[in-house]
Queue: 2 jobs
Job 1
Amino acid sequence: MKPRIEASLWGRDFGNPLMLASGTCGYGTELLEAGLLGDAAALVTKATTARPREGNAPPRIADTRFGLLNSIGLANPGAEQVVESLLPEMAFAPCAVIVNVAGETLEEYRRVVGILERSEVHVGYEINVSCPNVSAGGMAFGTDPACVAEITRLVRSSTGRPFSVKLTPNGGDIVEAAKMAEGEGADAVTVCNTFLGMKLDWRTGRPVLSRGAGGYSSPALLPLVTARVWQVASAVGIPVIASGGVWWGEDVLELRAAGASMVQLGTAVLRRPSRISEILLEMRTLLEGS
Amino acid sequence: MKDRDCRVESCSFECPGICRIGFSCPALVEEAGPGQFVMVEVSDGPLPAARRPFTLSSVSKSKGIFEIVFEVKGPGTSSLASSAPGRSCRVMGPLGRGYETSADRWLLVGGGLGAAGFPFLAASVRSARVLLGASCSDALVRTGGEAEYATEDGSAGRRGLVTDLLDGLDLASFDAIAVCGPTPMMKAVVEAVPDDLRPRVQVSLESRMGCGWGACGGCAIPASAGGYLKCCVDGPVVTAQAVDWSRMGGGLV
Ligand SMILES: Cc1cc2nc3c(=O)[nH]c(=O)nc-3n(C[C@H](O)[C@H](O)[C@H](O)COP(=O)(O)OP(=O)(O)OC[C@H]3O[C@@H](n4cnc5c(N)ncnc54)[C@H](O)[C@@H]3O)c2cc1C
Ligand SMILES: Cc1cc2nc3c(=O)[nH]c(=O)nc-3n(C[C@H](O)[C@H](O)[C@H](O)COP(=O)(O)O)c2cc1C
Ligand code: FES
């Protein structure tokens, strides 16, 4: 297929494929106020849980030479507060809003979606299955394709809105998980969440992050994400949303060539919010010259 | 969330390991208040992935210049310290909440690089008495005006800790007390202030930051009200009473 900038997802046409990744743009309110959302097609909110979550003890961030580690611990004000005060602030945002949903139990995913259904602001959901499954000893739900299937089924029965299942690269077969999500009625899969990583202080032998390991994001992950997007897009018929490693406009075009319908920007926007517009410009320049 | 390209006007070492950079940016200087900080892109490429936070150390409104003073620690600060005049850096700021400066008589208590922001603060209030502590004379950040020193090795001022300089001071004679430095030092100073004077204490906190503009939730500071404050938007300057010191640990949060 010829490279292009226009994109579409869930029956909506967008001028470009750029989405803001969950956890790297809050609930969008800061970027909206700064007038920086105009060039984004959609944003995905911070992971939202049924009740407010304080998040992990600090330190939650460790920057390494080659990428950022985070262990925020799903800190968020809880679904009620999101519906009552945060989503209304985004009602007139120039981009589509998608809510990222997380839970510690299967039942929690259903509860969160149930509460969020009261809002008209968001067009759909992204289901974060990278969370530790508390009832199964803390293994991430997403590493077990059967769990992915079950969460997808629960969410499908709770909403008529479209949703994407955001898969994890940390163990388990990501292609198998994607097929399970498709089989149970997901409208897209997001490939993928952060990679498990760790930084130690060699003097003390202790991890820098309070929880030991965290999620690693870096432009160096682009080839890893590209391979997974390619594998998943070859195996499923639903749209694939790419997430991970994008820094330049060229990266977006590459991920689209690998089969992604939409492409998320995470760490790049944390570092420099105006990357949204800059990346779009880079894409235009590349396509004009090609 | 203003983000601008700022020109490096000067870059020099104060003493081994401590670098001072002057940036030209009249618009930023115009908006800045003492205690606020900036997020600096330390490289033009994508790595390191996060910016680095620095307190505004001093500003010159007439020249449109602001300065940061920092210790060279790892990749971020070493890259920045090798800047030559003329280099352009992307700088976001001024960010966060700075000092509430309506009080008249100030006591400024700083440890190490914690004193980096004091010149701006001292220049913004009616009167300021400055107490500085550091490991040795080289690590003392000069604040411009008059200051009393304590060094652990006795190489400048009194041998000892900055809290020793508090002995015998009539703390009630100050309307406001600003504290900035390593966590154990800030804890010790806050504890040395009698309960009834604690509301006068404003502390400037440090935390590892992913963004500096409220989006990532990385910069959590344990709050006395339970849960966490976001250092970048609720701080970095907060009243001592807003912090749950028992959960602050000994190091950097
Ligand atoms: C609001 C604020 C104001 C600051 N002002 C100053 C200042 O005026 N002068 C000064 O010398 N330092 C200041 N710091 C600390 C300074 O940001 C760090 O020393 C610096 O980020 C270290 O980066 P590095 O890459 O050289 O070191 P590394 O140790 O390699 O840094 C790796 C990671 O750890 C983080 N980190 C390491 N030490 C600190 C620290 N003390 N505080 C926050 N994050 C840290 C870095 O941001 C980075 O994410 C401030 C920090 C904050 C939060
Ligand atoms: C600070 C931070 C917080 C994140 N929080 C979430 C989250 O709450 N839910 C989620 O699904 N992904 C979360 N992620 C993962 C991102 O959405 C994204 O998938 C990942 O960072 C890879 O993209 P990037 O390389 O462009 O950053 C977070 C990432 C970062 C850096
Ligand atoms: S540093 Fe990202 S929220 Fe404070």
Job 2
Amino acid sequence: MTPEQHRKPRLAPGCRMNDKSQQPRVLLMPEKALRLNGPSLEIVERCDGKHTVQQIIVQLQKLYSKGDPQKVEDDILGYLALLHEQRALDFE
Amino acid sequence: MNAGAAPPLALVAELTHRCPLHCVYCSNPLQMSPRDAELPPEIWMRVFREAAALGVLQTDFTGGEPLARPDLAELIRAARDAGLYVSLITSGLPLEEKRLEELVRAGLDHLQLSFQGAREESANEFSGARAHAQKLRVLKWLRGQRIGLTLNFVLHRRNLDQLEEMIALGEASGAGRIEFAHVQYYGWAFANRERLLPTREQLDRSLAVLKEAEARLLGKIRLVHVVPDYYAKYPKACMGGWGRKILLVTPSGDALPCHAAQLLPVMRFENVRDRNLREIWESSEAFRKFRGEEWMPEPCRSCERRAQDFGGCRCQAFLLTGEAAATDPVCSLSPQRPRVDAIVAAANAAPAAACTTTDWLYRPNPPSNSA
Ligand code: SF4
Ligand code: SF4
């Protein structure tokens, strides 16, 4: 499933990041934890139900302006789809 | 890999062995901790802080029934404050809507509600309590709460044919995750084994049903399936490997690598009252005993799957062969596999429907004092 550009991803109930003061940063969910670093942290921090998929893409393309913009977009869409399959994300 | 062993992922906190249910497959040990030996809240709070300092990310509150502790909300808050993700594994009673709200406010991240089946009458039979209707009430209250929800169904010979109904119950519940866990044969389940082990035919049918449901629910509900390992070719990686992922603390404070470990002979367990969690994890005899590969006999020692399943389950090896360090006898490479084959053959000698006994060995309540 490819996430649609106008939808707003939000962490599903029972999913949250650990505290900013804790290292390494992880996404916590029932019986599971995903390590977040670099781009994955930037993406998950924006899954707050306020940013659209498109806004996340634009912001990360700026942040990683040395990368190929198409590749950045594909990676984000792939990562969001993965989180959705694991029931870590809802799209609002 | 001992001092400096990678930290555990989860702290399993068995808060009490008290429980209003009497499940015939309960994984609690036959020798339960009495009420007056239970750790007081101050010690649990210290344990949560020590766990977080050790690198633990999550804690599962379990039992017995954690709701039997009046200080549960306080313990949830303390574990959250220590920086842990808190799951409550519960039968759903005794609980009222107000108390549920209080637990959520205290910082509960995730609740796992266990079911004995989809049909009230038989579910109540397996738990030896009138519990099923209350679980449905709890599901209704949970609709108003934004926390993670898992439904857990324990599967066996006598309820496996209700699988479609269980899936439907799970789908309607709003749960993000459904766990279908076949009974594992320790504790009370080992005593009731002949009445619980499914037939091959039941199992094959259930695998097909679950496969279909998994594909249909992808992205909506995460289905997790734990197979009965007597039917498997290779054993499960019990607890993700001894002393690798899980640290369990019993109601009275003993630190164990797995919930059944106390049945193993001549093993001494350290108590959290006396020692820091890090020391126990890194250097206690019990955690080091089967950590890594040193202890392994053949055929595990030279097997290429040894980093995948760690030679299987120590408790199962002991229960079925009398040797804690033996290759798990469910492994098809184990010289002791014929013992498991004999149990499986007996389970398949008669069709599942022929077994209607209600003559169970129920799990009793723990004694109230140690005397
Ligand atoms: S009796 Fe049932 S509900 Fe109670 S602890 Fe055992 S398995 Fe869980
Ligand atoms: S021989 Fe040992 S390591 Fe190999 S599959 Fe069997 S239990 Fe696992």
